[in-house]
Amino acid sequence: MKYLLKLLDILRITGVTVAFYWGYQIGFAETYNPIAQLHFMIPVIIVAVAGISGLEGIFFAKKSAELKGFEVGSNYQRQSAIALLSYAVIAVVVYLCNWGIKAELTILFTFIFFFFFSAINHGINAVKNKNYRWQNVNRPFITFILIAGLVYPVLMALKII
Q: Is 98 left (phi over 0), alpha (psi -120 to 50) or beta?
């Protein structure tokens, strides 16, 4: 089970890496098109991070909580997993229905808002409770890198709309 959860961590990071690689390939194809770039990147990133995390929280809740050093069987853990899955599902719906960049940015900002404060929570937990597990230590840094990588295309898209 432990190795399966590590594999899910690798899948999350790989999914985001693929989103950035192909997103920047699409965005800079001929002339820079941040809307095309984000149209690809947003659902892939959200499904990779929130979707996989949500499934992990529902199907592997006990072991996942143990690996992070959190309490096991919390209703909040289940609610958080459901919220994460809802981000992923809505990101896919917005993409498939082609609702446009405003809807895509809305779900992205909602997702980023959650993960920004989740990163703060993990960081505080690492320092305050001396819980130096991988997820607690890396979450603030990975979230910062994710946000930093999205700033330019988001700002460029906002200039267009």
A: left
Cα separation, 72 vs 85, in Å, equals 19
Residue 72: predicted pLDDT = 76
Tokens encoding 119: 């990163």
Cα–Cα distance measured from residue 103 to residue 81, given in angstroms and rounded to the nearest whole number: 22
Count, residues in the chain:
161
What are the tokens at 41? Answer: 């990147």
Q: How far apart are CA 157 and CA 23, in angstroms?
A: 13
- Give the whole-angstrom CA distance, residue 1 versus residue 96: 33
Please identify every stretch of the chain with a pLDDT value under 50, giving residue numbers as ranges: none
Residue 31 gets which letter from DSSP? S
- Closest Cα to residue 42, out of 6, 4, 93? 93
Whether the CB-CB separation of 153 and 34 falls below 8 Å is answered with yes
- Containing H/E element for 64? helix 61-68
What is the spatial distance between Cα 16 and Cα 48, in angstroms, rounded to a whole number? 6
